[in-house]
Amino acid sequence: MKSRLTAPSWGLYFILRICIFPIWQVQVRFGIIKHMENYLLVAVATGNEDEVWESLDELAALLETAGGYAAEGFVQNLDHPDPATYIGSGKAKEIAELLDVYDATGIICDDELSPMQLRNLSELMDCAVLDRTMLILDIFALHAKTREGKLQVEMAQLKYRASHLTGMGKNMSRLGGGIGTRGPGETKLETDRRAIRRRMGILARDLKDMEKARNVTRKKRGNGANLTAAIVGYTNAGKSTLLNRLSGAGALAEDMLFATLDPLTRVCRLPDGEELLLTDTVGFINKLPHQLIDAFRSTLEEAKYADIIVHVVDSADANVTMHMEVVYRTLSELGVIGKPILTVFNKSDLFEADHAIPDDRADVRVYVSAKAGGGIDELYKALETLIHEQQVYVDTVIPYTEGGRLDTIRRQGHLLSEEYEADGIHIRAYVPKQVL
Ligand SMILES: Nc1nc2c(ncn2[C@@H]2O[C@H](COP(=O)(O)OP(=O)(O)OP(=O)(O)O)[C@@H](O)[C@H]2O)c(=O)[nH]1
Ligand SMILES: [Mg+2]
What we know:
Blueprint (H helix, E strand, L loop, with lengths): L6 H23 L7 E9 L3 H17 L2 E10 L11 H14 L3 E4 L5 H11 L2 E4 H12 L3 H29 L17 H31 L3 E7 L5 H9 L16 E6 L5 E6 L9 H6 L1 H4 L7 E7 L5 H14 L7 E6 L17 E4 L8 H14 L1 E8 L5 H9 L1 E8 L2 E9 L4
Parallel strand pairs: 1-2, 1-3, 3-4, 5-7, 5-8, 8-9, 9-10
Antiparallel strand pairs: 6-7, 11-13, 12-13
Helix pairs in contact: 2-5, 4-6, 5-6, 6-7
Bound molecules: guanosine-5'-triphosphate (GTP) and magnesium ion.
């Protein structure tokens, strides 16, 4: 016999279904209710303490992106980090006593810990111990969308875990699936090194195949002879917002770190009719884990194959100079050298017009607001100028039998004049070197 709801349970059902559940859903949807893990942040200052506090602010932003929050930060001045426990063991015990006060799950250290530091600290403090690398890997695992992105993150996580296996066992079982444990590799944590190596071998092969496919796509793009520009910059600078502004791409642009992990290429049509292929890339950060650089090398190297580098800078950020330094350093580590650089000082709606930021490595500088649209005409002009520098001036006659070439020049060059004479089409134009 079918059970029937009695009158009072119908009432309860309607209260829950119509009143309480939708309110709860709305609150979760807009982030009003959220389960947040709470951590204490810890760093060692061997030099300028202010810079270390700024780095802790960034660590707090990373934690927020991963879905947790920082209850408090602690900086200890030392000549060098303690090789056994990162911070001094006395300081570690002191902080451990505050865990209950702040109701914190554990601590996050601002540098990558050695396996020994990881094990000693988690035993000494009897709590979850994470480091900056684990947190960044965790965010990448959360944000990876494509198969290639997921495999790259898994590879980076396995590299980290293979080298830290001895220090992690207790740490991870304690966390039970929270921050620092996400991503495809999490169930493999307790497996032995050999299993991890076997999996890394399979991943390396799959990633190699994907890299080959990426190179083919890149070559095809190159055969089209369109000039290409890579949009690079510190994470959250506004790279995807700029791509959307210039090409209507509809890329995810959000106030979070590492929203973009997979490169996205779109055509940008400039006011003088020329076309430029723009690629949005994964952002950089201070102390970007080397495991990620290795695993994401083929993605990060998009800039290496571009004709122009568009460097997007969040000019309103207090650490703008350090961010630019990190970007230039990472680019040179990736072998991206000798390319024309256009620096886009973004978020101009948030700072004073006379706030000039030095950047002697850029060939051209423009101030824009990718979000509001200010300065975009100047940016187009700067791109056109850079493109013309990559082109050669031609004054020639195209036979009528090869009229298709004129279309190519119209699309990829800049046609100044065309005259139809008996011997063919007389043209004057700027043509990309590769089309020539
Ligand atoms: N006020 C202001 N905000 C901007 C501007 N450009 C981008 N933003 C905001 O900055 C945040 C980050 O923008 P994104 O375009 O996602 O930045 P990104 O460089 O692609 O970031 P990642 O992909 O995470 O590295 C978003 O909240 C944007 O709305 C701007 O010109 N002015
Ligand atoms: Mg982005």
